[in-house]
Amino acid sequence: MSIEVRRATGDDVHGWDAFVEQSPHGNAFHQYDALEIQAAHAGAELVPLVGRKGEEVVGLFPLFRINKGPIATVFSPPPELRVAYLGPVLLNMDHMKQRKREGRHHEFIDDCLDWVREEIRPRYTHIRLDGRYDDLRAFSWNDYAITPQYTYHVDLSPGVDDVFMSFSSDARSNIRNAPDDAYTIEEGGLEEIEQIVEQVASRYESQGISYRSTSEFVRDLYTTLPEGQVRPYVLRIDGEFAGGILVIDYKETVSRWQGGVRTDVDSDLAINDLLDWRIMRDAMDRGRTTYDLVGANNRRINRYKAKFNPELHPFYSLERNAAGMKTLAHLYKAIREGV
C-alpha cells in the first residue's frame, strides 16, 4: 500500500496538533492555529499536507504559497516572521527497522514534493528544518541545495546548580553580583510583547537592518496558542522597562525567540545575563531539558551566547530554484530572516 499525500481537511485538521505533539520534529509553530496565524501575517496561502498509509498518518508537511505576480513560490516557514524552523514532521516510524523506516520516510517526502510540483509549480522553494530532522537525502535527491546553519542548546538536565557553575566566570559574576533590589524580572503580557518587539526593531533599524516581525503577529500567537507557550520576560529598573526576551515554551524545549538585544539603558546591570538565567531557572522548574538560544551564526553575538556553555547544533536551509530563477533566489536571500 502506497502513501497518499493530500491537503489536510476535516479529521486531519482536527487531529493535527496531536500529531505534532507526538512527532520528534514538531514545534510550537507547527500547531495548526500557529500555521494559520503565520499565513495571515505573511500574506500567504497555507498548504497543509498530510501523508497517510491506509488509516495511519506517516507525516505532516505545512507549506506556504506566496505569489509574486505570476510567479509562485513556496516556503516553510514563511519569510520575514523570524520563525526559526518548520518543514515536515514524521510519525509512527521509530519502531521500524532501518530499511523500512527509510523507505517510508523517503516515499513521504518524494510524494509531498511531487504534489507541490504538480499542484503549485513553484519557481522557488525554501525550507528550514530543525537539526533533529537529520536525514535530508530525499531533498538532495530532489535537487534541493542544502546549507547547514547553527544554533546553540544549553542542556538544562543537570539542574540549577550544575548549569550555573558551567557558565563562564563573567556570566556567574554578573548574575551573583546583581543586587536583588536593583531590578525585577517578571512574565508579562500584551503590553510587554509590544515593548520587547519595539526594542528589537529599534535596535535592528539603528544598524540598518530591516525587522519585519510585528508585535501584532506575536500578540496573535500569545492570545491564540495554549497558555504558557509564548512567554514575554521583562526586566525593569525602578519600575521602567529595560529589556526583554520572548520565549517559546513547547514540549521539552524553551527557545529564546526574540529580544535580548543590547539596550541603551544606563545601568551597570548585565540585563540579558539576568534575563537568560531567570528563563533557564523557570524552565528547569517546569521540567524542561533544553534552552535553544536560536542562532549561532553571528560571530559577535556568539561571544555572548557562548558564555552559557551551550552545545553547537545544526539546522538546515534547503533551496530549490527553477531554471532561470537565480535572480529571484537572490532577492529572497535579502528578505529571509537569519537566525
UniProtKB/TrEMBL annotation:
Signal sequence extent: none
Record's keyword terms, sorted: Acyltransferase, Cell shape, Cell wall biogenesis/degradation, Peptidoglycan synthesis, Transferase
Molecular functions per Gene Ontology: aminoacyltransferase activity
One Pfam family, short name: Acetyltransf_6
InterPro entries hit by this protein: Acyl_CoA_acyltransferase (IPR016181), BioF2-like_GNAT_dom (IPR038740), FEMABX (IPR003447), PG_Glycine_Bridge_Synth (IPR050644)
GO biological process, one term: cell wall macromolecule biosynthetic process
UniProt entry tagged with the keyword Transferase: yes
Database matches in SUPFAM superfamilies: Acyl-CoA N-acyltransferases (Nat)
Domain BioF2-like acetyltransferase per the UniProt entry, residue ranges: 169-305
Family: Belongs to the FemABX family.
Protein name as it appears in the record: BioF2-like acetyltransferase domain-containing protein
Source organism of the structure: Haloferax denitrificans ATCC 35960
